[in-house]
Amino acid sequence: MPYEGEHLLIGQVGHFFALLALVASIAASFAYYKSTVVISEVDSLRWRKFARTAFILDVVSVLALFLILYLIIYNHYFEYKYAHQHSKRSLDVQYLLSCFWEGQEGSFMLWSFWNAVIGLVVIRTAKKWEAPVMTFLSLAQIFLASFLMGIYFFDVRIGTSPFVLMRNEFPDAPVFQDPQYLFKYLTDGNGLNVLLQNYWMVIHPPVLFLGFSSTLVPFSFAIAGLWKKDHKGWIQQALPWSLFSAGILGLGIMMGAAWAYESLTFGGYWAWDPVENASMVPWLVLVAGIHTMLIFKHTGHSVKASYFFLVLSFLLVLYSTFLTRTGVLGDTSVHSFTGEGKSLYWHLILMMITFAVIPLVLYIRNRKGIPVIVKEESMQSREFWMFVGSLLFFVSAVYIIVLTSLPFINAIFGTNWAIGQDVEYVYNRVMILVAFVLGMLTAITQYLKYKDTPRKYFLGKILKPTIIALVLSLLISYFGNISYDKNGLGFLVAIHITLWAGVYTVIANGGYIWQVLRKNLKAAGASVSHIGFGLMLIGILISSANKELISVNRTGIAIPGLKDVKGKDENPLENITLIHGVPTPMGKYTVTYVGDSSVAKNNKVFFKLNFEETDTAVLGKRESFQVTPNAFLMKEESGTQLSSNPGSKHYLTRDIFVYITSWLNPDKITDTSTFRRTAVKVGDTIFYSNGFIVVQRMLAANKNDNKDLPVVDSAWLSDVKVFAKDGREFTVQPAFLIKDNQPSIKADTVMSQSLIIKLERGASGNMELGVKESASVMRYITLKAYKFPYINVLWLGTIVMFIGFMMSMVYRLRKTLFAVS
Amino acid sequence: MKKFHIVILGAIAIIIAGLLTMMKDLTTYDSIASAKQKDGKFVHLIAKLDKTKPIEYDPIKDPNYLSFYALDSLGNGTKVVYLNSKPTEFEHSERIVLKGKMQGDVFACKEILLKCPSKYKDDPAQQKKDLEQTSAEPTAQPVSKVEKSY
Prior knowledge:
The complex is a heterodimer of chains A (821) and B (150). Chain A folds into five domains: 1-192, no CATH class; 221-419, no CATH class; 424-546, no CATH class; 576-664 and 781-787, no CATH class; 676-778, no CATH class. In chain A, strand 22 (755-761) and strand 23 form a beta hairpin. In chain A, strands 6, 7, 8, 9, 10 and 11 form a six-stranded antiparallel sheet that branches. In chain A, strands 15, 16, 17, 18, 19 and 20 form a six-stranded antiparallel sheet that branches. In chain A, strands 4, 5, 12, 13 and 24 form a five-stranded antiparallel sheet that branches. Chain A has 821 residues and is α+β, with helices and mostly antiparallel strands. With 150 residues, chain B is of the alpha/beta class. Chain B is built from three helices and six strands. Chain B has a five-stranded mixed β-barrel with strand order 2-3-4-6-5. In chain B, strand 1, helix 2 and strand 2 form a beta-alpha-beta unit. Classes of the chains: A alpha+beta (821), B alpha/beta (150). At the A-B interface, helix 3, helix 15, strand 3, strand 5 and strand 10 of A face helix 1, strand 1, strand 5, strand 6 and helix 3 of B.
């Protein structure tokens, strides 16, 4: 059947480039392999030349893929499944890129894109390492291209093409009986998940994927080192790449945290969600690897450990992809992807096995040549404690990944374990101790010299920072109002001592720059990123321990006997209902729901909430501000649903977050109550369920004797006062109008009292007041509000740490370049 | 023995100790019947919303009280009380994971995880369902799930 309005060519071109990317990367990988193994120099160069051409072809294909998919999304070609599932016409242009990352294929494409860019840099800079390193980089490109292949081998589809058509995917659907289905049915797409319609979601995935993708380079250098039996040379090359990777990956992870902080409704930047954990674990191992590489450079120790950590870091990137993309996490994660099913599952397992077996085989074959230093390190040496620190990074990574993998472990062994009721605490209580020891090590170890440290030097330098840090952290502990009692006294003590470790890290590394590196600031990268780490630690501890629920509601109905295992009362109830126009006390604020405004285009509603501080002690200095949380309205079969986006008020030292948990459902306005009519004259009183109503003024006019009535023929106006039980008074002005013998009623409402009042002419000609009490008049929202103090310390720490990594990278890169020339 | 070996053994000991302490906090996925036997013990229930029975949530009366009935795959049911607001798309969920404990006849729920079709747009079965609905009502733009506010 010929279909109308389809754009088939662009998809065919896209599919062609997908296959070309696969073929080109196979050719590149093979040619680079040959270039590495052939003995003759001339042959090697010839293979390399061919390999470069093939790789550049791969780069071009990947760029073309990107462009074509973007055009399909941009032009709303809804005959393509990718556009149909992930975008819609009303989507703002800046979010069109987010459509890429929402789907499986787009994210693999992004990964492949970064690999291509990184590959070009490696070709330009790696010199003799180019061929072996690019062999593996191209191998990774083969796998990534195969995820986009979408070709059937027998009955199994390998990969998923982003260019499949809706009608080919769902051939049985009756809409495709109609040649004009594009104009009649598939006129719009399903749209982007509203949670992804956030500016962080435009930049977080590209940065994170650049981080993921760049871990491949140190990994490839490590394998190349094993392969070429050059167990020392690779570290020189891999170190700047590892620093780059750790910096970018760390930044990407924290951007995700910022996104969760600003748009997810679980109230924080980190929830130990499997998806978050899976991205952090490779970073932890990579940082361990950076430290062992530094140990090697200065002492010759830890080659094996460096191999191990760098290989593991990339494998963990693959494993995290596996966990989050195949749906194994299913029930445990808020935001994991599902759906691709078994094909992707085995595809990724194959990729993991390939990238695990190659280094293993090379290691077993070539391990004899790995240099081992027999002499033992001194306890007073920097490398000893650096190694302890690296190991601790690794230990924490193992702990996190085992817990995160529980659903996968269940799937393998048929068990049904799950983390108990306080997920965060299960992680926090271990991680806080890890953080404490790491903080202490980071503070002290810089003052130790490699190999051995004279005691006098060490004590002389470290005394001052230690005292300053101790005083400072005691001040914070004392005045910081940290009283986090949810997990008992022991945990509170742990918070305070870890806070000290964080402050110590900042002061000691700052002091080290001041005392030792003053003349050589270029070398201060490590100290700077350590300061960042310390600041992050402080930010995390203070903001989490002092996070405050503003919307505490103690009026709720408690179930008797509902207490948690520790015998404490349940968490305070978190939601408060605000009725339109009624100021409601909430913590030290009085909050009023003053209105809402909707943006019809993307079905977004903005709620305006006025916050007023009611702290009477600072009379005259009362602050007031407006917060506007918003929500998308989603029409479902079961009624309109709300997808909420928090509103926030940022201060330098604290943030206030508000999000809407429920709203008067506009569908549910079914008005069953009726007007109660009473004949009235001025001065009459009518009672209603929550007070009484007094008719204060009544006025009849017609256009013959009143020139102010040009629009209607005659009018009956009234002033009616409503006295509520709680002492509030409202004035309303219902009216009854007649024009051309047609009566019309202008009713008036008292929102907070659910009242509609109207004026009518009764059968006898007397005026009657109609009073209706109706739940449908009542506009209300239910919300949660949090206060996060000092969150900016965490963000500042993140940026400082990133700068430190980049400084180190530049410093190491200079050294590498000078070493070559 | 070298110091490194001692350090590494120490690290392994820490991992084992850490994982052992974690084990005691592990809980299990249960059916409603087995959760009823473990009265008062924290479990995860995999169930679905019983749409034939009423969902009680009135934010004006109490925004922190949601009660509903859940059914598991074995056909057992229980009343669930959740002292928090009603999650978005609750009625639309196909499967729910309830974390909490049985207390008498009521499951006191601490946390609800929803599996909603709209979150899983990549699920082929759901796409198929959407498409079939599309053809059932060909006049408007029915694939779109969003509608204007009131």
